[in-house]
Amino acid sequence: MELDIFVLDAFTDQQFKGNSAAVIPLQQWLKPELMLKIAQENNLSETAFIKHRGGLVYEIRWFSPLTEIDFCGHATLAASFVLFNHFDCRGEIRFETQEVGDLNVSQLSDGRIEMSFPNQKPVEINTVPQELIQGLKSELVAIDTAPILRNRQAYFVVLPSEKAVQEIKYDSRLLAKLAPYDVVVTARSDKYDFVSRYFWPANGGDEDPVTGSIHAGLAPYWAEQLNCSDLVAYQASQRGGRLYCRIEDERVYVAGEAVLYLRGKICVA
């Protein structure tokens, strides 16, 4: 069986930046264990599988090399880029998901792709796991005194400066014990509205280069803190990526660019 495959760098306008994702269009769903094996073979942070439902409606599922993922922003951006640029889709695409409802995606006049996500604003928690405190290390701030919040996806640690975010160190073994939750550290920024880094040893790897989904929580948090509904974010990983966010009612809109790296076929026995 031959399947088309696309590999893209998402949330960037340059190759070898942002976050890489594979996109595989399907006529029929494969068995989940086979999709996981394909994702493991691709060895990217995510592989998105999409299946056409009719018109501009597609089902989408995301797999990391470790497991199926409930919600992935950068691979949704990559899948949208493929549909807009290689499958002649126009207007607004609707993705049907298993865990987070429908995701609507539009191509803006400036070429960016904007995704509509459910608002997943985090709430402050009273009890902080020791694995989180011990798993994050900083010479600039005591993690156990930083504001810590959580949503359905991750723990949010709010640091006092962009420098603290950039210099944070982490212990993947300890953070993996927080499963099913991942960890994001974030702070205000002079150049952008806010910056972040995202660690997910429980679900995919050590540090994710750019994480669209977590901005469904980061953007509403910082919108409230900064009293602003339109924000520009930067994920300060080694590859780095820009995200353009806006809040409207109960939706969070996250936009970005993508660049094609590879188009080909895979052969699956």
Give a short synopsis of this structure.
With 269 residues, the protein is of the alpha+beta class. It has helices at residues 32-42, 73-86, 130-135, 162-167, 172-175, 215-226; strands spanning 2-10, 19-26, 46-54, 57-63, 68-69, 92-96, 102-107, 113-118, 123-124, 136-137, 148-150, 154-158, 169-170, 182-188, 194-199, 207-208, 230-235, 241-248, 251-256, 258-267. It is 20% helix and 41% strand.
Overview of this protein structure:
This protein has 269 residues and is of the alpha+beta class. It has 2 domains: 130 residues, Diaminopimelate Epimerase, Chain A, domain 1; 127 residues, Diaminopimelate Epimerase, Chain A, domain 1 (Roll), CATH 3.10.310.10. It contains 6 helices and 20 strands. Helix 1 links the parallel strand 2 and strand 3.
Q: Based on CA inertia axes, which overall geometry fits?
A: globular
CATH architecture of the largest domain: Roll
* Ends apart, CA distance between termini: 6 Å
SS class? alpha+beta
What portion of residues belong to β-strands?
35-45%
Secondary structure tally, helices: 6
Order of helical and strand elements: EEHEEEHEEEEHEEEHEHEEEHEEEE
What are the segments in which pLDDT stays under 50 over at least 5 consecutive residues? none
Radius of gyration: 18 Å
**CATH topology value of the largest domain:** Diaminopimelate Epimerase, Chain A, domain 1
Tell me the number of structural domains: 2
- By DSSP, the count of extended strands is 20
What's the overall average pLDDT, rounded?
A: 96
The CATH superfamily of the largest domain appears as Diaminopimelate Epimerase, Chain A, domain 1
Query: Level of helix content?
Result: 10-25%
- The CATH C-level name of the largest domain is Alpha Beta
| Major beta-sheet overview | 18 strands, mixed
